[in-house]
């Protein structure tokens, strides 16, 4: 597999097909990663989601709708806003631990090495501190770029692969940001297209699972949220594999070109 990744830049279909093979061959490892990392996160998100819904129980939605038109987000109860922020923080700062564990499995697989879930999870947690620093750098770049809309979007895509660089290249946070930018340089629109395709697929799957679990569990917000988020996370592993392969593929070709210069 590494030979093919070293020859030329693969297209999205090739990367996805390769990711599906890795997914199937390592299904047990990914299931353990799901249970150890993603499932506990789903439990926490389920609790937050239940509190979030509970904070709106006594709200008159007609009044809320009118207030939103007049004063915007401030119309929502403070508890609801805080729960939303907490929900975003948990997803943004903890789900990537699972992403990095998956990326470590992919890295070893393409080089013909078998890796168990313990080593993958351990490596992910070992790099957790690096990821947090990288995440803050990423947020700062986007915030600074938000003064102008396009620069914020540019940095959002250009630096997107920093978690992959941290785990795959063993990079420090700053190097990870620069490595990500190197892999996206002159391929920004192609990368954006890939991410949009993945987002659309994920959005469709998420909506489908949300409908299914809400039908099964009805008003039980906690169980619907936990089951839905866990199932979606297990499917998202395929896309984490795809993006890991994309990063590995591009970085190998960059290093080869630098040697030839």
Which properties best describe this structure?
261 residues; mainly alpha; 84% helix; 12 helices
Account of the 3D structure:
By secondary structure, this protein is mostly helical. The protein is globular, with a radius of gyration of 20 Å. The longest helix is centred in the C-terminal third of the chain and has 40 residues, at 221-260. The model has no long low-confidence stretch (mean pLDDT 88). It is built from twelve helices and no strands.
Secondary structure topology:
Blueprint: H1 2-7, H2 12-25, H3 27-54, H4 61-71, H5 78-110, H6 117-126, H7 128-145, H8 149-158, H9 162-168, H10 173-184, H11 188-217, H12 221-260
The counted number of beta strands is: 0
Number of helices: 12
State which percent range the strand residues make up.
under 5%
Mean pLDDT comes to 88
Distance between the termini: 25 Å
Question: How do the helices and strands follow one another from N- to C-terminus?
Answer: HHHHHHHHHHHH
Helix/strand class: mainly alpha
Shape: globular
Point out poorly predicted stretches: none
Task: Kindly state the percentage of residues in helix.
Answer: over 70%
The main β sheet shows up as: none
Q: Rg from C-alpha positions?
A: 20 Å
């Amino acid at each position: 597999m590494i030979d093919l990744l070293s020859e030329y830049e693969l297209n999205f279909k090739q990367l996805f097909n390769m990711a599906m093979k890795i997914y199937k061959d390592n299904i047990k490892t990914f299931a353990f990663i799901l249970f150890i990392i993603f499932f506990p996160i789903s439990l926490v998100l389920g609790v937050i989601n239940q509190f979030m819904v509970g904070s709106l129980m006594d709200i008159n939605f007609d009044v809320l709708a009118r207030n939103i038109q007049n004063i915007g987000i401030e119309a929502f109860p403070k508890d609801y806003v805080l729960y939303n922020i907490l929900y975003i923080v948990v997803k943004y700062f903890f789900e990537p631990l699972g992403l990095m564990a998956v990326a470590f499995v992919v890295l070893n697989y393409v080089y013909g090495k078998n890796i168990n879930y313990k080593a993958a999870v351990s490596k992910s947690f070992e790099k957790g501190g690096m990821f947090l620093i990288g995440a803050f750098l990423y947020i700062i770049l986007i915030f600074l770029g938000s003064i102008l809309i396009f620069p914020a979007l540019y940095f959002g895509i250009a630096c997107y692969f920093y978690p992959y660089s941290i785990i795959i290249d063993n990079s420090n946070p700053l190097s990870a940001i620069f490595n990500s930018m190197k892999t996206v340089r002159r391929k920004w629109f192609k990368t954006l297209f890939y991410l949009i395709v993945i987002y659309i697929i994920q959005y469709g799957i998420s909506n489908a699972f949300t409908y299914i679990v809400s039908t099964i569990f009805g008003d039980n917000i906690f169980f619907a949220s936990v089951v839905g988020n866990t199932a979606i996370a297990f499917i998202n592993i395929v896309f984490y594999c795809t993006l890991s392969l994309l990063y590995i593929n591009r970085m190998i070709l960059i290093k080869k070109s630098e040697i030839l210069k």
